[in-house]
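Sequence only, no structure available. Ideas?
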Amino acid sequence: MSTPQPPRRRRIAGESKPAAPAPKASVVKRAAKRTAKKTPPPPPKPAAPEAPARAATPTAPPAATEASPRRFSVPQVSARFAVLVALTVGALAFGAVFGIKGISEWRDESGIADAHDRAATAAAAAGETMFTYQYNQLDDHLKDSKALMTPSFGKKFESIAPALQDLAPQRKIQVKATVRNAAAVECGDKCSSDRATVLVFIDQARVADGEKEPTVFGNRIKLEMVHDDGSWLVNDVQAL
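Reply:
I predicted one. Tokens follow.
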């Protein structure tokens, strides 16, 4: 016996067809699997070139935090010790200043300063006499020089005269000496009013072998001066 079919409804003019029923989920899944099997996989993409390794960028050191200032321990000095040091320094300075002043005043009061000034003047004159000579007047030069010397140094000076008398006439040497400055050397606590050491700056203009223009030599000498019988005499000469 057949199952009776429901009667079909007559479609009205202008009415759209009824939508087909949605397929079941199982059917959709099977269709998707079949499509995936049939579709070939896409070709692999070419690998991108590796970028060159970058040098490590030095990282800046962390900003230093403001630290509290370091404190050092200062040894404690007692007030008594500080006062003692100050007094010692002051005493040394006072002694140095007034000690020098006292020596200077003592020299002035004892006449040593004036005596040494006269010794310096006598040394300058003696230096010009001893170091000025002409080849044809050597005897006069020896006589005048010895008159400004002590007897002991006069003999010593005379012993070297023959060498000058041999050389000067051969080359016709003429020398003119000029003292530029002369002063007594500091004598400290060994000062004496009848002895002095004088430093002399002296120039010698020399002409020899018929030269027309002189050659000038600058020299420094020390003269030991001795006060004897009212005159300052040369007791020794030392070239510097």
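The helical segments are 25-38, 79-110, 112-130, 138-146, 151-159, 161-171.
Hope that gets you unstuck.
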